[in-house]
């Protein structure tokens, strides 16, 4: 499973990238707002660090304007994936931009039928939002599983990019049901390393080691 980082925090991206944990990056208008930076400038900086797909989202709502914004965003770097919302205009934009050979990430997906439409429109990635479905007591993981089955039934090449990941359990379950990619904030990726038994075991090893009076260096 590929790991994308869901942030525009350049320092956090660089830190995870050094460990080989970053296969790509996703941003959205809220993430850009939180960064406090200019979208073109910060996206360019991210693309200079990460060689995998970097999603940059359009903000227009009419297809014609979305296409123009998408083309402008795609000029930032070769690894830009233009992110479009799953609306009818977004699907039109997806078809046009993907036909031009650009990567397109169709976002704000909340149903299997929406994912089916995105695949038919030539999306490179479909982004189903797990956490936001869980927030309203629906089953985000069931959606990932349904899309996996549908795409496999018909051999669609669109990659399932599990988004709105809030917990380490979301990551594990996405890997189990076969999401191609997951995108999570740096805090969730780092939390994957935590285990209470690791901490406890290390504490015991350190205590016993101190009793030996030995040194390795
Ligand atoms: C994905 O591409 C989105 O940027 C993101 O995962 C949304 O997550 P949220 O629901 O936690 O805002």
Automatic annotation (TrEMBL):
The active site is at residue 83. InterPro entries: Aldolase_TIM (IPR013785), TAL/FSA (IPR001585), Transaldolase_3B (IPR022999), Transaldolase_3B/F6P_aldolase (IPR004731), Transaldolase_AS (IPR018225), TSA/FSA_arc/bac (IPR033919). It holds the Pfam family TAL_FSA. Pathway: Carbohydrate degradation; pentose phosphate pathway; D-glyceraldehyde 3-phosphate and beta-D-fructose 6-phosphate from D-ribose 5-phosphate and D-xylulose 5-phosphate (non-oxidative stage): step 2/3. GO terms for cellular component: cytoplasm. PANTHER family: FRUCTOSE-6-PHOSPHATE ALDOLASE 1-RELATED, TRANSALDOLASE. Belongs to the transaldolase family. Type 3B subfamily. HAMAP family: Transaldolase_3b. This is Probable transaldolase. It comes from Gemmobacter megaterium.
């Amino acid at each position: 499973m590929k790991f994308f980082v869901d942030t525009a925090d350049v320092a956090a991206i660089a830190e995870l990238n050094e460990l080989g944990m970053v296969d790509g990056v996703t941003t959205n208008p809220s993430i850009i707002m939180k960064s406090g930076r200019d979208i073109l400038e910060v996206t360019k900086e991210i693309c200079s660090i990460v060689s995998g797909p970097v999603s940059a989202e359009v903000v227009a709502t009419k297809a014609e304007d979305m296409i123009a914004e998408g083309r402008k965003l795609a000029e930032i770097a070769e690894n830009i994936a233009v992110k479009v919302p799953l609306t009818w205009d977004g699907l039109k934009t997806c078809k046009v931009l993907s036909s031009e050979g650009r990567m397109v990430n169709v976002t704000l997906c909340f149903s299997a039928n929406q994912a089916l439409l995105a695949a038919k429109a030539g999306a490179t990635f479909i982004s189903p939002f797990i956490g936001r479905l869980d927030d309203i007591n629906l089953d985000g993981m069931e959606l990932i599983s349904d899309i996996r089955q549908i795409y496999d039934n018909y051999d669609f090449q669109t990659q399932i990019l599990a988004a709105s990941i809030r917990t380490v359990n979301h990551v594990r379950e996405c890997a189990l049901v076969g999401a191609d990619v997951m995108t999570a904030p740096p805090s969730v990726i780092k939390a994957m390393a935590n285990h209470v038994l690791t901490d406890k075991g290390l504490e015991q090893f350190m205590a016993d080691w101190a009793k030996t009076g030995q040194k390795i260096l």
